[in-house]
Structures are given as structure tokens and as C-alpha cells.
Write a structure and sequence with these properties.
three-stranded antiparallel sheet; mainly alpha; 154 residues
């Protein structure tokens, strides 16, 4: 048994084609997330986590409800509530009573949140240009085309 373990440990790492598509997509997603978080820290922006970024990305730069965000993110309304509470504390969003449904609260991006989002979008654009330099414009265009295609239901 020990010889088998040693042989495995001494073997060459497997090629990238053994990595699943899901793992590759996750690796790319993580590259963007970590780059954006690093830019936040470098610019002295508020310390936000991955979940905060995911929620902000799903606000669609407008007004929405916790129930809608929970559906988009695949999490509970309670989880969304915790994230929203943090973003309210940071001044990036606010809660407003819906004038049409007084028992509903809308999540609205503040002017500070809008500025933060504009800067984050600029950083993501910079990262995409960096990726184009690394991969080449043609490969990036093919990647974008594949990701933009209608994949249909699983």
C-alpha cells in the first residue's frame, strides 16, 4: 500500500483536460472575483466578501426585492437579508418601503453604491483587457461567444 501511495505522489500532475468544465468555469470565475477583491483592497475600498460581490452583481443596477435576489442566487431570503444588512451598513444599498405594496421592502443602490459599482465595472473591464493580452483577442472572443450562447435547460 505504501508503494502505491509513493508512486501516486511521485507521478506527474495530470493534464488540464482531466479537469471538468465546471472546474474550469469556477477557476475563471474565481480569477475575476479575487482580482476584483484585490483591487478593492488596493484602492482602500470597503472590505467586501465574495457573497457581497455576488449579491451586488445581481442587483442589476436598480431596485429589487430580497425574494427575487434569493431566487437568482439560489439561497434563502434570510441569507440575502444578512448580506443586505452588511451592504446597508457599508452605505452601498438602502431599504425602502414599496409604495405599491407597503409590506414589501425594496433594495435600492445608493449613490455611494453606484460609484462603487462604476469603479468595479471599470476594474472588471481592465481585467478583461488583461485576459485578452494573456489569451489573445481571438480566444477571448470565442470564449465570450460560447458563454453568451443560449445553453438551454440542463
Amino acid at each position: 500500500m505504501k508503494d502505491v501511495v509513493n508512486k501516486v505522489d511521485e507521478s506527474e500532475p495530470e493534464e488540464d483536460d482531466s479537469i471538468s468544465l465546471l472546474q474550469l468555469l469556477e477557476r475563471g470565475h474565481t480569477w475575476f472575483q479575487e482580482g476584483l477583491l484585490a483591487a478593492c483592497r488596493a484602492r482602500g475600498w470597503r472590505s467586501l466578501g465574495r457573497a457581497d460581490l455576488r449579491l451586488l452583481a445581481n442587483l442589476n443596477c436598480g431596485t429589487t426585492y430580497s425574494s427575487e435576489l434569493a431566487r437568482r442566487l439560489g439561497v434563502s431570503r434570510q441569507a440575502v437579508g444578512k448580506l443586505v444588512k452588511n451592504l446597508v451598513k457599508e452605505g452601498l444599498v438602502k431599504l425602502e418601503t414599496d409604495p405599491d405594496q407597503r409590506n414589501m421592502k425594496r433594495i435600492v443602490i445608493t449613490s455611494e453604491g453606484g460609484k462603487w459599482i462604476d469603479e468595479a465595472v471599470g476594474e472588471l473591464d481592465r481585467m478583461e483587457r488583461s485576459l485578452a493580452e494573456r489569451l489573445g483577442e481571438e480566444k477571448l472572443a470565442v470564449l465570450r461567444e460560447a458563454l453568451e450562447a443560449d445553453w438551454g435547460a440542463p
